[in-house]
Each structure stands twice: as C-alpha cells, then as structure tokens.
Amino acid sequence: MPLLIQNRALDRITSTGELFDRHPHLKENARTFRSQPLVDVDPKCLLYVQQREFAATTPADKSVSVIGSGDATTCHFVVLRHTGSGAVCLAHCDGSCTWSEIPLIVKAVTSLSNVSKEGRLELHLAGGFNDESKTSHKLSLNILAAFQKQKEEIHLETCCITEMNDIVVDGNHSPVVYGIGVNVNTGDVFPSSFTHKGPAEELRSARTFTGGQMADIYDSSRGLVKIGPCSWSPNLDIGFWLSQEDDTILKYLSTSPLAEPPHFVQHMKTTIQFLLEHPSSDSLFPGGQPQLYHRSERGDWERAA
User: GO cellular component annotations, sorted alphabetically (predicted)?
Assistant: First the structure.
C-alpha cells in the first residue's frame, strides 16, 4: 500500500520540496513541531536509541515510558505507532541500509499489535537539514520510498525533515531538532535532549563505528536491553585519530562537520579508545551471548546476571 497523507495516497515525488508544496499542512506541522521547547528526558524512564538502532514497546511496559534518540545531523528519526495497541518503535537511521531497515521497523510494531484490530499505523519523521552534500535529502526520499513499498497502510503525520528542520547560523546550515522522544503511553512525539545515553554507550558506539547493521536493542516482553553479540577485528591503526586536531576528526569522521554537536569529537575519541582497549569483541560476549540490562530499583539500567 502507498504511504497515506490525510487518507490520500502519496504520489511519487522527486524532492522533499515537492512533498511540502503538495502538502502544505506538513510544513505547518513541522514548524509547530520544531518550535516546541526541548524536553530533558529523565533517565529513569528513558530507553535511549543510538545510531543504527531501534527499539519497540507498548504502554504495558513498566520499565520504559519514553523512547528517545539524539545527536542526529543528517540522520533521521523514524517513529511508527499503532493507535489501537499503542505499540511504538523509534529508529535512528543513517542511510546505511534503508530499504532493509524500514521493514524491520514495521514488523516491530505490527508484531506487538496482533491483539488489536482497530487503529492505524502512524508515522512521524524528523531529522536532517540542508547539508551541502544533500545527504539528508537523499535519506529523506529513501525513507519515504521505502515506506511506500510496505504492504500496510501507513499514515504520515509528522514530517520535520531536511529543509523543514534547517536553520542558518553564522552562514552555516544546521538542524533545528537534534533529538526526539516519544511518550510510550500517549504517543506524543517531541524534541528532546539527553544527558544519559546508556546502557553500554561505548560498546554500542563501537558496534556502529565498526560497521554494525541496524539492531533491535530491546525485548519489551522482559524489559531487557540487549546488546550484541557483535564482532570486529583488531585495528590498531585507528589510534592515529587520537592524536589529530579536532577539525581533522570532524572533517573525516562526520557527514556534516559544521553542524555536529559540541561533544562529537570527544565521543569519537572515547569510541576509538574503547576499541583500542577491546581489540577483539569476544571477551565482551562470553559464550557468544548478548549483554543484557534491566531497570534497577534505583531506576538506572544495570547488567543482568
């Protein structure tokens, strides 16, 4: 089935500009969305999704009330929710394999919605900006096209992407919204900031840095964050980056050097240091089993025994 906008099928488009010209209410919705105040999400209720990860749950979940993700420049956030069951998924897509990732997101929600025949699938997109290489624009079009190919009827509700998420500061383009959250109970989607990005932040970043594909990080039936197992080969050459200037790291390790958040370089260095300290991932996953984390009584994620 095609993607639906106000209950009408989306025709083929060749640019995001064309999409917004044909559907001016999406432009207005995007302006409203990006003008909302940032919500600083309490880590005690948060499930944080990193780049090239997704997570899905339902309102019955006692461990998670907000799924969130941040630090996106050219990346896009995809939120899909079933209005009947309340099942919701948030993914942080970077364009590495969009056509295989979107079906995973749809399946994550529909598999949690079997008990509910009423309701519909609603889609919220945010992220990207008017970057010079048009990486954001290409990703926007690919995500929309991939949803067009799904057999389910999916209703596009929020579309704060690329030019509608763009601001010019001192002559440089950058995103307005760098992070979003979704309230699992209400389905509300909102711009967000995050002080806590765990559990296992360095491990998860290392997985993505070394080419790991889109991963489902959450078992909602057990309230467990599950990481890996994943693998990488020893590469001592990456230590080279630790001695480089910040501008060099930005230039070569970012898709958008002028738009990255202030902590980007330190995040890259921390990830590289983690890989140098763990040249083989085998020791991180004894017996080839994933690392599991559950919500403790204090409200933080702790390693499950």
Answer: nucleus
